Amino acid sequence: MKSALGAGLGALLPEVSLGQADLRSARPQEGDRFVIADGERKGAVVKLDDIKPGAPPLTVLPQEPASGTVRDGSRLNQILMVRIDESRLMGDTKARAAQGVVAYSAVCTHTGCDGLSWAAEQLRFKCPCHETEFDAADGARVISGPAPRRLPALPLKIADGYVVAAGVFTGRAGVISP
Ligand code: FES
Question: Which of 2, 17, 79, 94 has its CA 20 to 30 A from that of 163?
Answer without folding.
Answer: 17
